[in-house]
Amino acid sequence: MPGKKQLRFIILAVITLGAFLSLVVSSGCSKKSAVETSAEAKLPEVSTVLVKKSSLDNQFIFPGVVTALQSADIVAKVPGKVAAVQVDLGSKVAAGQVLVALENKDLADRVQQAQAAVAQARAGVEQVQATGKLAQAALQAAESGLVTAQANFEVAEANYKRGQELLAGGAIPEAVFQTEYELRYKQAKEQVEKALPAQVKTAQAQIAQAQAGLKNAQAGLSAAQASLSLARTAYEDSFIRAPFSGVVAARNINPGEMASPVVPVISLVNLNKVVVKVNVGEELINKLVVGKKVPVKIKAVSAKPFSGTVVNVAASADPQIKTYPVELHLDNPAHLIKPGMFAEVNLDLEQPKSLLLYIEAVVKDQQDRDMVWVVKEGIVKSRPVKIGDSDAKQVVIQSGLVENEEVVVAGQEGLKEGQKVTVKRR
Question: Is the pTM of the predicted complex or chain greater than 0.90?
């Protein structure tokens, strides 16, 4: 049986051998892992995306300047001394409201005189019309009497002939014939041939005279009415009124000063709606339609954009700047938007969905053709593509790819056909 010293030696030897073997095995594993890590580190790393259908970001920002929908520098129609100014800077006015009144007492007097002349002329017309009605009634009476007289004459004539027969047969004496037959016949004949026709002619002459007098009286009335209209116009011209509803932007005159037809006394703007004008290039102008709603940002008023409506698209380009003017209207009920403010118009032009790819994914091959690198199962292959419109971030792929294919967007430098790569998908 070995001694204690031998046993200790054997145990120490076994421990030493075990430690040596463990060190050898560990060293071998470490060498293998390092080799594998080195091999993997040699594969190029690329970033990829999947090709998807979507729409380009077609938001085009155009600068514009705000102007009033309506504006006017208002002048007096006639020169005159200012009696009163009824508005001030910033006053809200309605269409037709008096802004400035000129001294007009003499004009008011002329209106009263013209009104009196019209009343007198109208009375003259009415008097002539009354005379004409009397003459018309007389004519009707004379014509009616003539009809009756004609009937009486026919009866008297028949009696007269019968009386002649009776007188010739000795049935009645001469005296009876003359008083009962001949006299009545002559009286009836006088009425039919002379008296009543004369009355008809007299009534007709009176009617003609009344008609001529009526024409003259009506001409006088028309002249008086024209004079009244001129007087009223001159009187109304002494009041300077607002041509539309709006806000007073400038007041340039005071009571006692002289108003002139050449110098504006009031400047007026309509701020219920404002106008923004922008200039659009030929590549976009045909994509705009009247009635389209677009966001308009006015930083001086609000960070939130306003809603604008396209109301006018020019049919021809401005010859100076070669762009097409486009006009938009914005509702401005609170009058926060002021003329002269700067605006940014965002024309978001809709496009159909198509295959989109980041612009940096498209590179050139040796023949200067557009191509991309497609990754499948960790291997890259080149693919020619045909590209279309772009929004500066993405480009439309018209042909060469299908949806959900994986394409390299970064790390294309130095890639070779069929090369294995390490993929990092975005």
Answer: no
